[in-house]
Predict the structure.
Amino acid sequence: MRGLKNIDETSQLYAIDAIRMHYEICHNQWENINRLKQTIENQIFDKQGKTSKTPKRKETLRIIGSSWQFIDSTYRIGKLANYIKGLSHREPQYIKFENEIRQVKEFRNIYQHLDKHIKTIQDGDNPIMGLFSWVCRNRTTSVTLSLGMLAGHASVHGLVVDRLERKYVKEMQFSAGNQDLYLQETKLSLDEFMEYFDKWLNENDYLSDQVIEPSTMVFDIEALINA
């Protein structure tokens, strides 16, 4: 994530726009993930907290899809930050986010280059589209979701437990190939970077008080033909 030279003003403004839009996508996908976690918990546990059913395929597909979308948009924010001239790379928020993006890139490559990665799957690897794990509301139980085939001799793992502290080490984890990504740490790093980024935008008069609403252009083919 090093700044690119000779970026004109228009390119910089487009990059700023894209960063902020991808952050909205991340925020929406994060809300989806947390909503789906609760929905799935309600599906698989009965009123006594015992496992009673399997989650619906629809919700499982959505939470895995939202996780990949969140990861992809986070990575794109990191890449687009290269286009912003004058944004200091020495600030702690930038450095922390830069380090996180390196991990996100490796993880995202599994999905981005799926056609090539399929050929390298080893026995014991996670399902190609990933495993999603989280700590439930009661804090004593976790759920690990998968969708798709497991490679031979796969040993599916969920969240790590600290036996002395009697609690889970992490609260949310996405796994694919032979890699794990702790989504809450990614989200925290992203939020801290965006707080720094918005402050920098404000200080440099890139932010406006005006809220930009969607615009609509409607083209009627009959009107065009008769014009």
Helices lie at 9-44, 57-80, 92-112, 114-117, 183-203, 221-226.
